[in-house]
Amino acid sequence: MNMVSFPFRRPRGKVHAPTVTLAHGGGGKAMKDLVDDVFVEAFDNPLLALLDDSAQIDLLGLAQYGDRLAFTTDSFVIDPLVFPGGDIGRLAVCGTVNDLAVGGALPLYLSCAVIVEEGVSIDLLRQIAKSMATTAQEAGVKIVTGDTKVVNKGACDRIFITTTGIGVVAAGVELGVHRARLGDAVLVNGLLGDHGAAILGARGDMALQSPIESDCAPLQDLVASLLDAAPNTRFIRDPTRGGIATVLNEIAEAAQVAIEIDEMATPLRDEVRGFCEILGLDPLYLANEGKIVAITPPDEAEQAIDAMRAHPLGRQAAIIGNVVAGEPAGRVTMRTIFGGRRIVDMLVGEQLPRIC
């Protein structure tokens, strides 16, 4: 892909203050030093180095990957900012990369807009920027443009990040929530609920000690492997807020089908299961940041599972259910470990404190 060349490396500013001040958002030298020292230093690439008001991307270069542009945006607010298995920076990159990937797109470019509260440690901001850069490299994307704003103390919860992503969908890839058909298989790529449990445990207000880490990870390679093995896959989504229960209800409603899943086949970490039992939570509604729910034709389900299990992020992939007849359209049910069945509704209100 053609890249705009940058003829020289301009001098970069350095931040000398220990914390972010309002001057760092004022548009002058202090702001330039912050952007240079924290963000340009971490994200460094030829498109970003120009520091123009927009990144200019070669269209012919994009076209080599496919015939449709994928475009998405998401905002990230989380407490704590750093948690077992990740931080808000890793979360911001993974969340947007995964939104592109589950649509069948190859993620290529991200923008990053950061709102920082006055008084935030420069070291913390630098740590998060470096985490974003590392995760972007892992995902094969470049952060090519962005924005920084500083607000008065108390005006936001330390750091908010918005990432926007651009990717390209290859010809022939057709995924849609409405495409589920009778007999299709419901697949997940591994243990569910880790992210939601990790964030709640990290807050410390539950007085629980838990070794659970977030599953936060970029999934573009896993999704590509799945689509290679099961090219007629109907639909893929990452079950973030609202968990797999929400995604399954969205599929059932959009496609006007019924879905039944098996509790025994649904992969859960013992620690997450125990965590939910203690707190009275349903793990089907816990957020995930490194998982997918996929709907595949029945004759491609085993190939899809084999492909995911061959990937490090899919070793515990499982078929957890099917699109079934005999139920009202739009309904999701679960066969329980006790031999009964229960309705799995869309989440109403909030099961637990907001985690992202």
Explain this structure to me?
The chain is of the alpha+beta class and 356 residues long. Helices cover 30% and strands 22% of the residues. The protein folds into two domains: 22-169, PurM-like, N-terminal domain (60s Ribosomal Protein L30, Chain: A), CATH 3.30.1330.10; 177-343, Alpha-Beta Complex (Phosphoribosyl-aminoimidazole Synthetase, Chain A, domain 2), CATH 3.90.650.10. It has a seven-stranded mixed beta sheet. The chain has a four-stranded mixed beta sheet with strand order 1-6-4-5. The chain contains ten helices and 13 strands. It starts with 28 loop residues before the first helix and ends in a 13-residue tail after the last strand.
Going by helix content, strand content and strand pairing, the class is: alpha+beta
Provide the domain count.
2
CATH class of the largest domain: Alpha Beta
> How would you write the strand order of the largest sheet?
8-10-7-11-9-12-13
**Order of helical and strand elements:** HHHEEEHEHEEEHHEHEHEHEEE
Give the number of helices.
10
The global form is: globular
- Gap between N and C termini: 35 Å
Point out poorly predicted stretches.
none
Strand-residue proportion: 15-25%
For the secondary structure, the number of strands is 13
| Amount of helix | 25-40%
Computed Rg = 22 Å
Overall mean confidence score, pLDDT? 93
Largest sheet at a glance? 7 strands, mixed
How would you classify the quaternary structure? single chain
The CATH topology of the largest domain is: Phosphoribosyl-aminoimidazole Synthetase, Chain A, domain 2
CATH 4th-level superfamily of the largest domain: PurM-like C-terminal domain
Can you name the CATH architecture of the largest domain? Alpha-Beta Complex
